[in-house]
Design a protein that fits this description.
Layout (H helix, E strand, L loop, with lengths): L7 H5 L11 H20 L1 H30 L5 E2 L3 H5 L9 E7 L6 H9 L8 E8 L3 H9 L6 E6 L7 H11 L4 E4 L5 E2 L3 H10 L5 E10 L6 H23 L11 E4 H6 L10 H11 L3 E11 L5 H22 L3 H43 L10 H28 L6 H4 L3 H20 L19
Parallel strand pairs: 1-9, 2-3, 2-5, 3-4, 7-9
Antiparallel strand pairs: 5-8, 6-9, 7-8
Amino acid sequence: MTVPDPLALAHERPELSAFQPFWKRQTIALALLLLAFSLLAAVHPLLAGRLFFSLATFFYLLISSYKMFLLYRSVRSDAELRFGRSELAALREDDLPLYSILIPLYREAESLPHLVASLQRLDYPADKLDIQLLLEEDDRETREAAARLALPPSFRLTLIPPSLPRTKPKACNIGLAHARGEFLVIYDAEDQPEPDQLKKAVLGFRRSAPRVLCLQSKLNFYNPRQNWLTRFFTAEYSSWFDLSLPGLSSLRTVMPLGGTSNHFRTEPLRTLLGWDAYNVAEDCDLGVRLCRAGWKTRMLDTTTWEEACSDLGFWIRQRTRWYKGYMQTFLVHTRQPIRLLRELGWRNAFHFAMIVGGMLITLLLNPLFWTLTALWFIRRFSALDPFFPPLVFLMGATCLFVGNFAFMYAGALGCYRRRCYDLVKYALLMPPYWLLMSIAAWRALVQLVVNPFHWEKTRHGLTTTPRAP
């Protein structure tokens, strides 16, 4: 069998690939901006400081207001596609299409038996499932574990030749080329999708507009109470997948996809050349690309349960990869800003800037402003006063109380809607967790320069919590 080109996007549409992280014009523009600000700071430091703090404070107000706006939109009846038991029961098995499932695996021998058992619980005809386990050729341990299992006929092994970059999207591109189904979904090694998820996706596609290419399922964890880290992680995930993304869905705007449980129409996905093999947050990038091409994404009211990373070291590595991929995505799609505005429109471009760029800027700026706030409260550091004229100080005080409340409230509300009532209090103690997020963001910025395509793998199987949620 001929191996398809898993790097097709980089070869055929290089302007949409993260293969070259920084374009020359972006580097020049950033250098000129820094030079101009440095000259201003040297000539007139007070003016430079006031300009910087005014812009940053206004940005904080804007991003906090945007967060509350998404919470407001998330409760609308059209924020998610929902289907009841009677609608699912009315589906005839003869009318169900062939459904492809791609599962990229690398060093996941311990997760394989649980994964196979989870997929066998799907409420979908076995003869209409096309399940590919995407295994790296040189991953001997996982290949031997797969050989020991008595895999049902709906499963098949697809080997990924060892080559750079060693990333999940590269494996998914090979799986996409060999997919047989009308629809396709990505699952990770530790995933446990709700049994009726595929049927809901079929109904979702059939009852949506033809330009809906992707349905994003919700993600949450089956080990939310394992330790302090998983409790905060659950509050964050509940806010993101149960509130922020449904809010974006209700606006019918650009949506950064989750890394798993996104369902696609197979053929249109092929026309988009699949995923960018060089982007380590390929899901976020694909969500932007499909919107630029005129396709739509909707949220689907179904959950896939995952394992929350419970080890701080692995959590930092995982989060570094996510933020590095978001940085790659933002750089790629702002290379040609006029073209971006033409393809997305002003409204969608604003949402892209807020949800992708805004999050990154917030995480990078947070340590500076936390330090300044601590200096002001503890030492009453009067040297800062000239940089914060009354209006800027008022905006800053508003951000301190209202802005932080908005983000903590989002986590608390997400936990409440998930009926994790005992975790609501952890959402109100999020600042230390935000500090970890900022550490990962700065680490991602360094990696973006020195090692942009490195995929830091998350280790699974660290929980003793039963997988059934």
